[in-house]
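Q: For a teaching session next week I want to show students how multiple molecules come together into a single three-dimensional assembly. I've collected the sequence lines for a complex. Could you give me the predicted structure tokens for the whole thing so I can convert them for display?
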Amino acid sequence: MALVTVRRHRDRGPGIRGREAAAGWLFLTPAIVILGLFLVLPVLMAAWVSVSDWTGRGSPFAAGVHFVGADNYGDLLATPGLAQRDFGTAIRNNAYYVLLVVPIQTVVALFLAVMVNQRLLKARGFFRTAYYFPSVTSSVAITVVFLFLFSSTGAVNDVMSYLGVHGPSWFADPRGVVHLLLGGLGVHQPPAALAGGSLLGLSWWQWISGPSVAMCVFILMGVFTTSGTFMLLFLSALQNIGAEIDEAATLDGTSGWQRFRFVTLPMIRPTMFTVLTLGLIGTWQIFDQIYTGTQGGPAKTTLTPAYLSYSASFQNQEWGHGAAIAFVLFAIIVILTIFQRLLLRGRA
Amino acid sequence: MRAHPGRSAFARLRHVPLRHVPLRLAAVAVLATGAVTLAACGSGFNSGDKGSSGGSGNGPISVLIGSSGDAETNAVKSAVADWSKSSGVKANVTVANDISQQLSQGFTSGKPADVFYLGNDTFPAYAKAGDLDPFAAKLSNVGDFYDTIKQSFTYNGKLYAAPKDFSTLALIINQDSWAKAGLTDADIPTNWDQLAAVAKKLTTGDQVGLSISPEFARVGVFMAQAGGWLVSPDGKTATADSQQNVDALTYVKKLLADGSLKFSSAVGAGWGGEAFGKGKAAMTIEGNWIVGALQHDFPDVKYKVAELPAGPAGKGTMQFNGGWGIAADSKNKDNAVKLVQYLTQTDQQMGFAKAFGVMPSVKSAADQWKQAYPTQAPFLAGADYAKSIPNIVGIADVVKDFNSQLQGLANNDPKQILGTVQQNLQAAVGK
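A: Of course. Below is the structure for the complete assembly, covering every listed component.
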């Protein structure tokens, strides 16, 4: 009884615990200020810029800046013209990049993780470090190395010439690989069904071009640099699976593949979701490699929305377009992430 | 596109549960945050005075340049230092890594550099945005600048930059390859047929006759020689799809098909000068800057500079103009104008020409320059008939798109390429 009375008494007054909320907010303030200053406010400002005619002089909130509604978005999505075609090209290039990098890097990362998780493997530590190494190296440095490796007289082409293959001038080659394959089959001009029609200013034939040879190098580089990071995530998930589960499955007479497919894989599903989501977000935002390597060339086949947003703003003073591109990109990433989440959850 | 570990940390922070906190406190915290951030932001953006505030401050002048190398940086620095000494006004020279980005950042912050480099293809966007001060007409030597260069820095009837120097394109010939192919000075091509013939003759197993960068800024010379151009002489109508331009691209395409012309990207070089210096091409079309580049990277290559051959409509080449701009938001405009006045004097320009191989933008320096650099005279001769990249807002994007299509010229229809350029240009001209 006495205890209850005391507690009631405390509930009514401020008491010791009553001040905890205030203290909590006090401790949170630095985080809120930093997030507000560097995240919320810039996002809100960018949102305003994307619906304004700001020309990049002084504050976007100054008197001379007008609200133009969805004009900037319209230029990108609806009005035929250079801005729309550039945006369409960037979306196409990046879509191929995502489509190839995300699955490949996930599979490679999982494969590497399973390999270095083997108890039998000697020098596991060495391999773990080696695979992780590209992930902790500056992407600018890696891009520059790749520029040298894949120059038309670079090491890659040297090796290929030993094998009797005449390599392309990788970073200067704008031909799409699907077009190349079709060309190999004798199709050089678009069939009538694909020549017409257009989405975001590109014909269907241009949409199905596939990644250009130059973009393929970036795809390879993306897989090379990121697989190590995700290998680490998979590795920690694998190590959380107790050895006894594996043993139980072995006693049930399963084969190695069956254990992997029906025991291991379902158990690391949450990690799989994380890896796919991070991969999706990261690949849609590719910028530094493009900025260092090709600036969107050759023939705009490595142009990506993130780089286009930068060049529209800082080089062409089209700040409204630049901000609008960023928001469309944001929408794409959010929608795809939700979609992927539904997909993975649906199967569970 | 590496995964950012930091990002997941952010995500976690955002999920701080707010439910258990009294609403009032939350509101206060949000308001406080907002106030702090807005206050912090206010100092970054100069939202107040936008008009042309006299700008007679005495503060130090900041100069932003995009330099081609140490030679240029040192030349500009020492010239500015000399001016500081004589005028008593401090001035700092900053070399930009990416001048368009750094200029833009300056303009948005309201505290731009006072004096900076401007290119004639990028300034219209800044002029339209009101970033630039149209000061150049006030200079005492304004009559001495070449009219074509002044024209290229004029937007809506106002001169926005003081021309500082210019370069033109000419034909650069490797003398050893030339002699090896049995050619003499009399064979220097003066028309398209001769160019095609010598290019073919100079093409050997490991050297192509002619190599140029796959961009409008090189291929455009053929359009000028054919009598075409992107826009009409008054700059008001897009003329990209004219028959003359089609003829020009068809000629280039023919050279590509012959194998006597290859784009620099196809021979593993970043630009024509590199292809030429490495001996992958016997001829290239480049501007004055190639002199310094060859001296620096390929000092053993013996070369000759010649005027470009004439096309069906006579001689034609392209010129690239540099200028000094002054920010509309500069606090020290008076001194900035004085500095530009000093830097564009004939003597100073000759000094820059000597240091990094550009041509002075003033007519009064022409004879002096020709005497000092007789082998480069063809560059200056080009000034009489050279065309500049049209100075309209959005031209940079149009040219970029044109360039991306030129890379596929060998396999594409010139008419179709120029049709797209025409559409893009019409949109830009109409703006």
